[in-house]
Design a protein that fits this description.
By secondary structure, the protein is mainly alpha-helical. The protein has helices at about 5-25, 30-50, 55-75, 85-95, 155-165, 175-200, 205-210, 215-220, 225-240, 245-255, 265, 275-300, 305-315, 330, 335-355, 360-375, 385-395, 400-415, 420-440; strands at about 135, 140. The chain has a two-stranded antiparallel ribbon with strand order 1-2. It is globular and about 70 Å long. The protein starts with a helix and ends in a 42-residue tail after the last helix.
Length: about 475
């Protein structure tokens, strides 16, 4: 096979992937129909990633980056398709620019009527023909979901909303947040390439850069999770050498989307001395407190906003009220699910902290994050953006099945019922277990060290084994160098 053929095949596959994403996001499919097209895009993504294994080393970085731009750009072809969160972002930015705390006034508040426009608040006569709108007490409607609730977003996300509002051209509407999120997604790609090049091979960056979840959830739906992902990847990239900096970056990630708090055990992997643990935890806590403080001082209401109502709405306070804890509820009474989840997560976190690899903090972070997803079985697919980035760092691709399960829960769950959601997460758990088992079988046995000058016997094993991209051994130019 010529050296240019793998490159050509990969380019074609990425181009087909971008075309399929454009058709999906530019079309009118919803629910299960959208999920079917989305699944096809994931199949193309998998084929492109496999083809990338054979591409010569010098072409990898340009190809990953070019593919990242092409894939991310597909998210700009249409207004948000499967989520209305971006409209809340635009509103929160507008409210802050008017000098009002988003934690004090809900969008339906009569005092904020002067800030309304025809885009976020269509005329009452247009409401019946406008899709995805929520009713208002005064008889009108709005594109903002939960208009009677205060915002749920932490302060770093709110600063991002204000920044986008300030920089966006007039009448840019949803496009401003989509473009901003697209730039953040490309920044994550660049950071992953930088980190992975230092560790041997940047191919794994394609697991984020070309993943369909990025154009759909990070760009088209403009979810603020991508901001948290950027800070989280940066934190894990530096925390092994610069604990204070890593802790501060992780604090910014937590103050952008709360979910990165599950990364803390991974960030302190192997740090058994209290001083080493505190060097990460304290700056993270200080940063979270520091960014919350201005909003605390300027807000009359709680800066936690709708967080408590959201937890109750999603069934995290009462396991029997929704689709959460789906796998645990297969074997335990509903009333035990929350306690069991907390106990298992605590055990995983302690194991990661005590036995984790300090040189690869993302490995333990992936384990704790993935375990949290399998135990809590969230119903929102964009939460998995953090998981996708961790998979790119560590290479254990079996965890991407959890991201797929989240998509099933969000897109098909309302129509197909809880059984489909449980089956999706159960399948993801089986894939994770199978991947771990297969990797354990392939792991070379430890090699006994021999005294200096001694000769190995006929049954002795080589002192070095083939180490490569976990799940994807290299076939171009020999095994990957460096550690995965």
């Amino acid at each position: 096979m010529s050296r240019t053929r793998p490159l050509a095949v990969t380019v074609v596959l990425v181009a087909v992937l971008a075309t399929a994403l454009t058709a999906l996001l530019g079309g009118d499919a919803v629910g299960g129909g959208f999920l079917g097209g989305y699944a096809a895009c994931w199949a193309l993504f998998a084929a492109a990633v496999v083809a990338l294994r054979r591409v010569a080393g010098r072409a990898v970085v340009p190809l990953v980056l070019a593919g990242a731009v092409a894939v991310a750009a597909t998210g700009l072809v249409e207004a948000p398709r499967t989520s209305t969160d971006a409209y809340r972002y635009a509103w929160d930015g507008r409210v802050q620019a008017a000098g009002i705390s988003p934690y004090d006034r809900a969008p339906a508040d009569p005092e904020l009527v002067p800030l309304r426009d025809g885009w976020l608040f269509p005329a009452a006569t247009a409401c019946p023909g406008t899709p995805d709108v929520a009713p208002l007490p005064d008889g009108g409607c709005t594109r903002i979901n939960r208009p009677a609730a205060h915002t749920v977003y932490p302060p770093v996300a709110e600063v991002w909303f204000l920044l986008v509002h300030g920089l966006a051209p007039p009448d840019s509407r949803h496009k401003a947040h989509q473009v901003g999120a697209g730039l953040l997604s490309l920044a994550v790609t660049g950071l992953l390439v930088t980190v992975l090049r230092r560790r041997g091979d940047p191919r794994r960056a394609a697991l984020w850069a070309w993943c369909p979840a990025v154009p759909v959830e990070a760009v088209n739906n403009a979810h603020a999770d991508v901001l948290a992902v950027l800070f989280s990847v940066a934190a894990l990239a530096v925390v092994a050498r610069r604990r204070l900096t890593g802790g501060a970056l992780l604090g910014l990630g937590i103050a952008a989307k709360m979910l990165p708090a599950v990364l803390l055990p991974g960030a302190v992997s192997g740090a058994r001395r209290p001083r080493a643990v505190l060097a990460v935890v304290v700056p993270a806590a200080v940063v979270v407190g520091a960014v919350y403080l201005p909003y605390v001082l300027r807000s009359e209401a709680s800066v936690l906003g709708y967080l408590g109502g959201y937890a109750e709405e999603e069934g995290y306070e009462d396991a029997g009220a929704g689709g959460r804890f789906a796998l645990l509820r297969l074997v335990l009474p509903d009333a035990w699910a929350t306690t069991a989840a907390l106990l298992v997560l605590t055990g995983v976190a302690l194991a990661v902290w005590w036995r984790g690899d300090p040189e690869r903090p993302w490995r333990g972070a992936l384990l704790t994050t993935g375990a949290a997803f399998l135990l809590l079985t969230p119903g929102y697919s964009w939460y998995a953006l953090l998981l996708v980035a961790l998979v790119a760092l560590d290479g254990r691709v079996e965890w991407l099945g959890v991201a797929g399960a989240g998509a099933v829960a969000y897109l098909a769950g309302p129509g197909a019922g809880q059984g489909a959601v449980t089956a999706a997460y159960a399948t993801a758990a089986v894939l994770v277990a199978a991947g771990a088992g297969l990797r354990r079988r392939r792991r070379p046995p430890p090699v006994e060290r021999m005294p200096s000058g001694a000769e190995p016997d006929a049954a002795g094993r080589p002192l070095s084994g083939v180490s490569g991209w976990r799940g994807f051994p290299s076939r171009a130019g020999g095994p990957f160098r460096g550690r995965s």
